[in-house]
Amino acid sequence: YTVEFVKSTSSMALVSLRRCLGAVLKNGAAMVQTRSYSAASGYLKVTTENDIATIAMDKKPVNSLNLEFLTELSLTLEKLENEKCKGLILTSALPKIFSAGLDILEMYQPKEERLRQFWSTLQDVWLRLYGSPLVTIAAISGHSPAGGCLLSLSCDYRIMADNYTIGLNETKLGIVAPFWFVDTMHNVVGHRQTEMALQLGTMFSSQEALSIGLVDRVVGEGETVDAAKKEMSQWVKIPGYARQLSKMQLRKPTIDKLVARKEDDINYFATFITKDGVQKAMGMYLESLKKK
Amino acid sequence: YTVEFVKSTSSMALVSLRRCLGAVLKNGAAMVQTRSYSAASGYLKVTTENDIATIAMDKKPVNSLNLEFLTELSLTLEKLENEKCKGLILTSALPKIFSAGLDILEMYQPKEERLRQFWSTLQDVWLRLYGSPLVTIAAISGHSPAGGCLLSLSCDYRIMADNYTIGLNETKLGIVAPFWFVDTMHNVVGHRQTEMALQLGTMFSSQEALSIGLVDRVVGEGETVDAAKKEMSQWVKIPGYARQLSKMQLRKPTIDKLVARKEDDINYFATFITKDGVQKAMGMYLESLKKK
Amino acid sequence: YTVEFVKSTSSMALVSLRRCLGAVLKNGAAMVQTRSYSAASGYLKVTTENDIATIAMDKKPVNSLNLEFLTELSLTLEKLENEKCKGLILTSALPKIFSAGLDILEMYQPKEERLRQFWSTLQDVWLRLYGSPLVTIAAISGHSPAGGCLLSLSCDYRIMADNYTIGLNETKLGIVAPFWFVDTMHNVVGHRQTEMALQLGTMFSSQEALSIGLVDRVVGEGETVDAAKKEMSQWVKIPGYARQLSKMQLRKPTIDKLVARKEDDINYFATFITKDGVQKAMGMYLESLKKK
Fold it and tell me: Domain of life here (chains A, B, C) (predicted)?
């Protein structure tokens, strides 16, 4: 069923990943073999050990973020908070990809109510992750464009596998990252790097990302989660309440900005994405995917 | 005609350039020979090729920014926007100098109306250049102090020839860079570097400028424009509308700040510059120039 | 007299310095021999030479900041301003320590009036130092945690002796640096480094501090003051009025923020520090010191 195939593979940032992911998309079987995780009912595989939770995103083939995925992620983050977990490692259960970002099918010929819920849930995920009382470490085990990059940037620390790419590449697809994506990157790499990266829609290699501070450490293939656990052990030693208050001193102004403009941001997104030109461009892109 | 000579050579930032420019100023003939451009009626030589415009500043001897120059630059920037040009390369037609900055004669014993128009036009140039929908690349082919540095910093990308100097050196002349000069530098090199550079009035060598991110690339003498064209070809591939919106997300707050304070800023400048002490200092400086 | 001993050695940030300072604290005699300064009536030794003042902090054993020390520092800073001094070098007269930060005894079982005066005086010291019209250079001759780090960061330039440590390590002690500590660090090393350093309470080695821009230069043991004098000679050449105005353009927003919230900040501190949990933790810490 072609539409279903498109539905499962399309993703806002996929276009820029085509070359990198060629092997993955062409060979689903190989992909499944490489995965060491067993099939899960939901999109997230959550394991907890000594108050440290690991969320492995597991929505084939590229962890594209649709409404159901975001809802599950938001609820899981809330649950971990309530369970007084101390740390969270966010990673992917799929090979070569962390997350390909927002699911383009949520934005193509959308129904208004679902579209608004989709965006609102994305906001909720960010608010919860960026302001999380837990120590949050992204184990970026594969490519991480657009929304995948946002998830990474919202954590407290980023460890990336070598030879992948990461960045807010929305501009290259003809769309614009929302202001809170921009703010989140700004808080990590500063004004100049953000301005240039956003204008060009730059996808950085792991090493380039390290050199501008977009990630904090680069490790070998398959080593991100172990490295994250080791790093986590240092962070959870710090008195939690003081650490959380310190974190919020730095992040609260950025969080407050979205909270104050949540509705405006939804309206802006819904208006922008349903413009004729934007819809036509997405239609042509999806058409090109079907032909493959 | 001494006064005319002074008029043509004086410039706010010239003092710090005296040593570097010694050869240029002493030998006008050599300077003309080096220039490959023919005489132009205006102060700007504008050429356009494949939607990429090049503005070569051509006001001998040091591209000092007086009211007429700034008016021509403002109108040219407006015209290129209206012509739907995609890119702009800003460079100098003169050897060894990009621009020496504001013309000190606009500020010495000024008539109030012209003084206010001068400053207002400088604001307009900055607002138009910093917020330009075009991709803007500075090909910094020579020294670039004060106002010359501001023009460079307002572009999207900076390529500088080796062995020159660049910086906001106003402090060294006993004056103070206006807040929007400061904001523009802040957005490129951050708070700490801006604070130190502004306090000390630092002129950075090309290599130093590269190391703190004040320029993005350093190339050999005479290679800035070619390098700018090559860089430009990457930028104009990006979907223009999305790129412009992304740029404005980063720059609009800084632009809005001046727009809101335009009149206050003119009043402040007019009051500061006409103070007895400041006028006396400028008088003595001009006197010292005449004696040469 | 045990309590007096505790009083003289306790300091908010001391805990993290225990290993580094072991030798110092165990051997008061050795410490005195190393000091080349003679006994002073106050806590500060102030010398002035060619309009450059040097304040050597001299409150044994670790220059902990209590109300009397802060009052003397505030008055001294005011006096140097009134005397039209051009430059200030802030250093320590004690070996191996710049300042260990706020005196914990000011915060343990405090009388409300003194507690509020203590905090208000700390605010005054920072407002005066951060906004000082003088060129201010920190000659960081030893460890510089918490409040010691704040004093350093409030200067215009930082020269640190090798093989010591510096940082805002409040989080490690279970408390939280006030917002203006955070702002001051933010203005030096940017958002990302501040966020990480504050969350972890990181104490940076001299070389690490240099690599992230927390200090500007690292020199050998005993060379900080000479290096500061040499650096100072460059800064005082700059026209003073223009330099001061430039400095204030960068620092005034941060200063205005505390001025506007001075009372709120005192109330917040007084409420936070007198909480049962915080008091108990301090009590246990002081108890552990007495037993040594």
Answer: Eukaryota
Chain B touching partners, 3 or more CB pairs below 8 A: A, C
Residues B230-254 have pLDDT tens digits of 999 999 999 999 999 999 999 999 9
- Expressed in angstroms, the distance from the first to the final Cα of chain C is 13
CA atoms within 13 A on the CB side of C237: 10
- Specify which residues A138 forms β-bridges with: A90, A158
Verdict on whether the full-model pTM lies above 0.90: no
Residues B75, B78, B79, B85, Cα dihedral to 10°: 140
| Alpha-carbon separation of residue B178 from B169, B259, C249 (angstroms) | 12, 14, 9
Which residues of C form the catalytic set? Answer: 102, 147, 169-170
Q: Residue C190: its chain B contacts at CB < 8 A?
A: 190-192
Rounded Cα distance, A243 and C172, in Å: 8
By the 10 Å C-beta count (0-12 exposed, 13-18 middle, 19+ buried), B175 is classed as buried
- From the number of C-beta atoms within 10 Å of its C-beta (0-12, 13-18, 19+), residue C82 rates as exposed
Query: Rounded CA gap, A122 and B292, in Å?
Result: 68
Q: Where would I find the beta strands (DSSP E) of chain B?
A: 44-49, 52-57, 64-65, 87-92, 101-102, 135-140, 144-145, 157-161, 165-167, 204-205, 217-219
Q: Nearest CA to B15 among B122, B155, B136, B146? A: B146
Which of B53, B45, B47, B44 minimizes the C-alpha distance to B88?
B53
**Nearest CB to A190; choose among B190, B234, B239:** B190
Q: Estimate to the nearest angstrom the gap between the alpha carbon of C100 and the chain centroid.
A: 7
The encoded tokens of residue A8 equal 């499962």
CA of C237 vs chain B CAs: smallest distance (Å): 9
Residue B235: CB partners within 8 Å, gap ≥ 6?
A: A199, A200, B87, B135, B137, B156, B157, B243
DSSP strands (E only) in A99-164: 101-102, 135-140, 144-145, 157-161
Residue type, B285: Y
Instruction: Give C211→chain A minimum CA distance, Å.
Output: 13
Measured distance CA(C44)–CA(C79) in Å, rounded: 13
Region for C47 from its dihedrals, namely left if φ exceeds 0, alpha if ψ lies in -120 to 50, beta otherwise: beta
pLDDT 10s digits, B51-107: 999 999 999 999 999 999 999 999 999 999 999 899 999 999 999 999 999 999 999
Contact criterion met (CB < 8 Å) for B242 and A171: yes
Cα C199–C10–C125 angle (5° rounding)?
Answer: 70
CA dist B18 and C239 (Å) reads 19
User: What's the alpha-carbon Rg for chain C, to the nearest Å?
Assistant: 18
Q: What confidence tens digit (pLDDT) does each residue in C189-238 have? A: 999 999 999 999 999 999 999 999 999 999 999 999 999 999 999 999 99
Nearest CA in chain A to C172: A238
